Known about the structure:
By secondary structure, the protein is α+β, with helices and mostly antiparallel strands. Helices cover 35% and strands 32% of the residues. It is built from three helices and five strands. The chain has helices at residues 3-14, 17-37, 91-107; strands spanning 41-49, 52-60, 63-73, 114-123, 129-135. Strands 1-2-3-4-5 form a five-stranded mixed sheet, sandwiched between helices. The chain starts with a helix and ends in an 8-residue tail after the last strand. Mean pLDDT is 83; it is low at 1-13.
Amino acid sequence: xxxxxxxxxxxxxxxxxxxxxxxxxxxxxxxxxxxxxxxxxxxxxxxxxxxxxxxxxxxxxxxxxxxxxxxxxxxxxxxxxxxxxxxxxxxxxxxxxxxxxxxxxxxxxxxxxxxxxxxxxxxxxxxxxxxxxxxxxxxxxxx
Length: 143
């Protein structure tokens, strides 16, 4: 086996659907713990709609907050970079988040203000958080 083939197989192994799901779940757990530490109350996790899934739904004082969690492996893994977790929240993803938030509000009426936040994490190979960035009101154009 050549060195190139070995690296390609290693990259494939590390980006398998199971590995991505585990990284995503770990990121959601870390984001939820961070938000609770900031005084948020988590009221739903992995709320599903036809359009997709809301990672976290929380209350921040009088605000209802829909939280998109984006986790990436921290640099130094030897794998090609996929960009920052923040960069993965594309305009298309933002539109889907707004639609999912509206679906949640249809099923769970809320008269107060609401917003969509993004928690971006970079996770080290040992599972610790290398970087966490909480972007409040990250999706524009939401009432």
